[in-house]
Amino acid sequence: MPVTAPVRRGLRRLLTVLALLPLIVLLARQLPQLPYAPLLAFYGFAVLTATVAVFYLAYARYVDPAEAPAQPRHAAFPPLPPSPTVSLLVAVKDEADGIEACVRSMTGSEHRPLQVIVVDDGSTDGTAEVLDRLAAELPVTVLHLPRNVGKKRALVHAARHATGEVLAFTDSDCVLAPDAVGRCVEALLRRPDLGAVSGHARALNPDESLLSRVQDVWYEGQFRVSKAAEASFGAVTCVSGPLAVFRREAVFNYLPAWAADRFLGGEFRFATDRQLTGYVLGQRWIGDRLKARFADSPFVSDEDHPPRAWRVGYVRSAKVWTTVPARLRPFLRQQTRWKKSYVRNLFFTGTFMWRRGAGPAALYYGHALWVALAPAMAFSHLVWAPLRGWWAVPLLYLCGVLLKGTAWGLAYRLDNPGDPRWAYRPLMSVLSATVLSWLLPWSVGTIRRGVWSRSTV
Q1: Those residues with Cβ within 8 angstroms of residue 239's Cβ, 6 or more apart along the chain or in another chain
Q2: CATH T-level assignment (fold) for domain 86-326
Q3: Does the N terminus or the C terminus of the chain have fewer Cβ atoms within 10 A?
């Protein structure tokens, strides 16, 4: 007798609970002691509880939308054509050594029909010559900007030339799997309510250094677990740059708002993937206002798409590889840039995320609280407690950090049987607790500085 879909779902949820049982038992043992525990103990309990919840959502509820049964058409969401044209866009600045691999992987995508557009954002290192050579050989449109305008404005300039029913973005240091774009399109066809989906990114250069190996394992969890948990509610909050795929109707009208985004009285030049995703997640509440503000833009005046209750998903089977920093200094610069973008987006998506329901709101605001408290917790455990002579506190804190990192490492091992690199994941947790947490106040204090760059050197 064949196993039905409800039975498979039930078995998957049961197995997930059994796998999480050690952490659940640990939480149950700590719960009666919380009323008598110091305040810092509540932080560890809350972090572990959130970890269990995210793992459950990712493994018990998430289904790759490219492999899920097709859903019936819904009147609120216009259907895509059976083979929609995809416009695949990338902006590049000063990457003469790496852009050829990216462009070749873009034109090598199996999905057809496909329009590939590369915009050179005022490069000065020979990138323009590389792109012109590729344009003579490959089916790619190259646009040259006479001066640097920033990644967002460069991509919006490219979007003016895009004719596809689907708009896909990648980063100039990435290489796409041949079927990656097609897998994302399949997800949009099967789920008409999906306005955007993220692919699954890993490191392109994992063996370059210890730091790149650590990041590779960390990327796996950030997508396979964190994005999968959000996708179980149709509310992925960051359709990440390595492969970000949007239905044209879901994002086209908001591109001028993205290009002209301002924060704290000035233009915010970082091309935040979270901000672009936010226009899809929140357009029911902010869409009409943004469209009215940019009514004279051809992105609004030439084609008008009404705000819809789009869902945002994640396609685990859509593989893309991105070059990660192999040395500490560029890694810290990248992390600082990401934190600045996160802070800016918190003041945008945070204004409406509570409207999307209890589950998405709990994930979003819970994560925001964890990010905000991380520097204070690191200071309390690693600096203040030792100064008071409480030497057991930092030891217990680091043990908790290692416990969480080990749980993520075991999740990696479950998804990648036989791969010994799962052991690198606890190192990322320690690095995050002891180094990266301090970047938040620095990022806030310097949020008005910076220009976009893909450089990892």
Answers
A1: 196, 197, 198, 245, 246, 273, 276, 277, 280, 312
A2: Spore Coat Polysaccharide Biosynthesis Protein SpsA; Chain A (3.90.550)
A3: N
